[in-house]
Amino acid sequence: MLKNGMKIIVNEDHRAPTVAHMIWYRTGSVDERNGTTGTAHALEHMMFKGTKKLKPGEFSKRVAQLGGRENAFTSRDYTAYFQQIEKSKLEAVMALEADRMVNLQFDKTEFAKEIRVIMEERRLRTDDQPIAMVQEALAATAYAAHPYRNPVIGWMDDLQHMTVGDVKAWHDAWYAPNNATMVVSGDVDARQVHALAEKYFGRYPQKTLTRTRPQNEPPQLGIKRVTVKAPAENPYVVLAFKVPALRDIARDDDAFALDVLSAVLDGYDNARLAAKLVRTDRVANDVGASYSGIARGPVMFLLDGVPAAGTTTEQLEKHLRAEITRIATEGVSETELKRVKTQLIAGQIYKRDSVFGQAMEIGSMEMSGLSYKDIDLIIERLRAVTPQQVQSVAQKYFGDDALTVATLLPLPVTDKKPAPPPAGPLR
After folding, report:
1. Peptidase M16 N-terminal domain: from which residue to which, for each copy (predicted)?
2. CA 340 to each of CA 109, 201, 270, 271: distance values in angstroms, whole numbers, following the listed order
3. Of 32, 44, 136, 323, which residue is the catalytic one?
């Protein structure tokens, strides 16, 4: 930890002379309020539009000249910037990243161009994608109060009314060393990284951060439903159940049992949902289950699918719920659970195979309020999940009062081609 409150985490991996350098800011769309949605993501775009030292676009050119690659991403919980570089170039990219933490320029003309790019990004990735539209409607319906109800990219009306001043205010409020975590993973020495961090970031003063209020979600009192009509080839349905997040790795047994339940349903090629609903009963063309308990806010367990010809979305919804009920009633065998956990744990291990993957896992843990020191403990906790725990969570969390259902009602697909996007990268 630097004296100004900036956290530095170094993961030494000496297999190849490469480094992943990441700066994570603990602010995302969860910190936005009505009328300001999309601001965190818009700032991510503006971070490439010049500083007191660099012209717009020069940051990316400098990294490319160093032989590296770079990008950024915004989520509900955080915004992160990264460079992948040969190890001797680490100091150069660290200097670049430190510069834009405090010296970012907010040019009205550059913002006017970039907000058009963002609006086109929204059209391409959400408004023209029926599944994305359903997922957006699902979140807006499931959450009545929590900011997770808003899309990370923002509602179009908010984008149309956003000003460069809004983005500058976001930067001023949240981009500070005491709201940032540096993760460096690769062929480095931790002491040298600390010295470089002190050199380039240690001189910046910390800021007084005004944390947003939690806006806790009120209890749900019955099934919520939403239908989206959009041009699409096939209908689609997704069921979202409100379930516990992972807050305490040592004590939150149910979060790990839900992780394993998700893998029982959809964690490998012959998992239950695909084996039963796609290959045996043939009531679905595609099915899935997903759960991640790592988040700053509330989380949901998702079941989704595309019904086969002759099956309605209502029927597929019942089939999906029936598979949960079957586990709640009959449980899972030790043999099946052992096979599932082997696959699940292998996936946890394989994602650490690259230095960038390790940096990603460290940063996402820290941003959610968990500690990178407990990453290995997660595998131990998954390995310890019992059949009784899996059956218990299947019994406990999948009732009507926790459920939101979003359905896609297909409209005819036209051959009209979308207008070309404006100049500029989609980040």
Report:
1. 8-153
2. 54, 45, 10, 8
3. 44
